[in-house]
Amino acid sequence: MNELDVVGVRVEMPSNQPIVLLREVSGDRYLPIWIGPGEATAIAFAQQGMAPARPLTHDLFKDVLEAVGQELTEVRITDLREGVFYAELVFASGVEVSARPSDAIALALRTGTPIYGSDGVLDDAGIEYREVEQAFAGYVYGDSTCGQRAVYGLGLTGIPVFNVNNNCSTGSSALMLGRQAIEAGAECVLVVGFEQMERGALGSKWDDRTNPLDKHAGVMMDVQGFNAAPPAAQMFGGAGVVSGMPVEKLYREIRALRIYEGATEVQKLIIARELLKA
Predict the structure, then answer these.
(1) Burial readout 6-33 (b: 16 or more C-beta within 10 A, e: otherwise)
(2) What pLDDT does 113 receive?
(3) Which of 19, 64, 79, 245 could anchor a disulfide with 86, C-beta 3.0 to 4.6 Å?
């Protein structure tokens, strides 16, 4: 058995299928496992240290184990058969329970339990660094070689690393480029995304050159005017005008959605009905 760390949850494009990515602690292999959206959320919550107001299923399982005095000592990813991964929960009492890897990993993160993968699973489904032929790094705010810095931190050298910056479409653009590389004949590519932004509204960083949004800003002012609000938000609002939705209706919907977030179930039905009438 080989100990594994949980790197995080990713989304496979274009199917939008969540993947939990594991990394070999004492080796160079990654292990991607396709999981459901509910389990992906549970894993992400545990990694981020988010505590729900009421216990979710895996939180409840952890509480039950503590209440009955059972200690989870290991999670083992034991087999891969016909594209399906299998796992086991190993308890201090010697009891072993079969489980889906996604549930087992979500529980392991909540209990601090080590995760192991069998040699057979890693041999069949593990991906090594040296198999990656190209890398695409998506980010918006950063110097032009941040992608190289991020990828070299994983141990990858000697491959082309492409920095991708396409504003709000950066992630999808990097994924599209990765897919095109595969379609062009590459066997294995890496697409990675990251961001660290300053606090506050988005704004221009350069005052010694033409703003690339100058034409858009001119059209926006002609069509809907300019208000004392963040320009980026008004740009997005203007998209409703271009698509045929009056900006007043778009603003009504945005305000309604803000109210909707904190509404009761009855209030949500009333808001939805009013939006349909508008």
Answers:
(1) beebbeeeeeeebebbbbbeeeebbbeb
(2) 94
(3) 79
